[in-house]
Design a protein that fits this description.
Layout (H helix, E strand, L loop, with lengths): L10 H6 L12 H8 L7 H22 L6 H15 L9 H20 L30 H19 L3 H12 L4 H8 L3 H18 L1 H5 L1
Helix pairs in contact: 2-3, 3-4, 3-5, 4-5, 7-9, 8-9
């Protein structure tokens, strides 16, 4: 199962975005981003297609960063408002996905500071992610039986719990590294700490996860 969909309102964008005759669906990702940078603001159909392609990525990132937040949809909408206003400033369109991740992560950090949160407890109502390929923790067998499927589900449940139970600085850093695949330097820039601190946090987060999941890793 995947995280719940985060709806985004288009009323503000539709009111000011110009119409465009370009068939956005036929453009490559790179060309689509280039077209969104043309003019004062992106065309409505172009930006709608950009959101269609990349909104699942925003949903997934925010879900891992804030699994227990009931207002992630508001945060996701603010992400796209910032993208709409600032996409012309992106100098390397090929790096749009990373740029988008940084916007989402920075907004998460801003909101986190406002709430003065220390840790993020697990939400028992949050959906269970059992097919997160980016984690690369899958069963070796291509045809698992019922017992193996149950064991896999239990493992992912404990994994989700272990990640959500990490101290905030560890959890955010490990999500950016292992799920987003960001470089250490990017994480240091986003979190505002030194490169050495980033590496230390990632190492300690991995150690904690391994300790909590040892019995499942052994079996």
């Amino acid at each position: 199962m995947s995280s719940e969909s985060l709806p985004v309102s288009w009323s503000a964008v539709e009111a000011i975005a110009p119409q465009t005759p370009i068939s956005a669906e036929k453009l490559s990702n790179y060309d689509l981003i280039l077209q969104c940078q043309v003019g004062l603001r992106p065309g409505k159909s172009l930006f709608a297609e950009l959101m269609r392609r990349y909104h699942p990525h925003v949903e997934k990132l925010l879900y891992h960063l804030a699994p227990d937040w009931s207002d992630r949809a508001d945060l996701a909408q603010e992400v796209w408002i910032r993208v709409y206003r600032n996409i012309k400033r992106l100098q390397e369109p090929a790096k749009f996905r990373g740029w988008l991740s940084r916007i989402a992560t920075n907004l998460f950090y801003d909101e986190l500071r406002k709430r003065k949160r220390v840790s993020a407890p697990l939400s028992l109502d949050a959906p269970l992610t059992v097919e997160d390929g980016e984690l690369d923790w899958e069963l070796a067998s291509a045809t698992p039986g019922p017992a193996e499927e149950l064991a896999t589900q239990e493992f992912y449940e404990h994994l989700r719990h272990a990640i959500a139970d990490l101290p905030e600085v560890f959890r955010t850093t490990i999500v950016l590294r292992e799920i987003e695949g960001m470089a250490y330097e990017e994480i240091a820039e986003i979190t505002g700490v030194s490169l050495g601190t980033v590496k230390s946090r990632i190492a300690r987060a991995r150690q904690r996860l391994q300790e909590q999941l040892q019995q499942y890793l052994e079996t």
